[in-house]
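User: quick one, fold this
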Amino acid sequence: MPKEKAGILVDEQFGASVLRDAAAQGYTIACPPRRAGKRSSTSVRRGLREAYRSFHPTFCKVLVRYNPEGDQALNQRQAERLKRLSDYLHNKGQSQFIFELLVPAEKSQFDQLNRDKKTYDLELRPKLMVQAIQQLQDAGVEPDVWKVEGLDRTEDCEAIVAAARRSAVTKLVASFWPR
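Assistant:
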């Protein structure tokens, strides 16, 4: 595969040598903004500085579990940290921002659906994904790329795209896998 079409996503803790080698060979590289297992915003800033110094990643990728009807204090803390990261990447960073959004069911949501995952994925998760994107954007989180879980219905895909396009810089990547 030509290197212009190939890339690698690996965290620096477990793949520093791979990232260094890929960067030296001119591949597109992506890594998270912090070492695996670290949660503080201090480790995010330190991790970004280290990654930029060592690898100059093309993309900074985060994976976020966020349910807009979940723990509001947790959602607010996450949104504040993600806004700081978003601001840093757009103002001082050298990487584009990839945001992978997962919307796990809250226990009460799952219980209301008789613990039926298929119904959650088809009926509730798409609406929650739109709400999550809107809440995060309202908090100032502006990814360059939204990576989202696959959806089954065209209208749900269109709603996600409309929500993601509130920002002119955003692209959308959907993950698809068999259910």
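User: anything notable?
Assistant: The chain has two domains: 1-57, 63-73+89-179.
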